[in-house]
Every structure is written in structure tokens, then in C-alpha cells.
Amino acid sequence: MYYCSVAFEVLENLENIGYLGLGLEPGKDMKNSLLTELGRFEDSEIIKTLAISLCEEQRKKKHTVKEWIKILRAIRLNNLGNHLNNLGNGFLNNET
User: Is this prediction's pTM over 0.85?
Assistant: First the structure.
């Protein structure tokens, strides 16, 4: 719950990120696991950028929550912060 709370605090005032389910109480919805993954990033600007990019990409191409978690983990663990423009592209087809 800690990481979910971190992301929630960073993102609660942003618009157009409804896919993340910020109106829900932490722990009440599967999408809160997206908040948990976002909260694991140390930089609040990266959290904001990823959240906005994720929601924009979700409007174009639907991914499951599990797919998004895989993408976010790949970005975080592989330090791929410089590749935010490719969010969702390629990560799902490459097993890491």
C-alpha cells in the first residue's frame, strides 16, 4: 500500500488520468496495482509522465492491467526512462 499511496499523492490533482482509478480508495480495485507500480519510481516527474503517457496510450490501444504492470516494471528495472515516447510499444512482445 505504501507505493500506491506515493503515486496517489503525486497524481491526485492531475487531469485525464481516469484510467488509473484515482477516485477509488487504495486497495479497492485491481487498477490500484498500477498505482503501486508507478509509486515505485523515485522521481515524481517520472511518475506523472508515465501516468499521462499510459492513459493516452490506453485510449489508443487497449492493454490489460497486467500488461501495463509488465511495461512499467520493464521501464523501471531496465532504467528505460528515456524511452517514454515508446510506452507500450515493443515491451509486450519482448519477454524479459
Answer: no
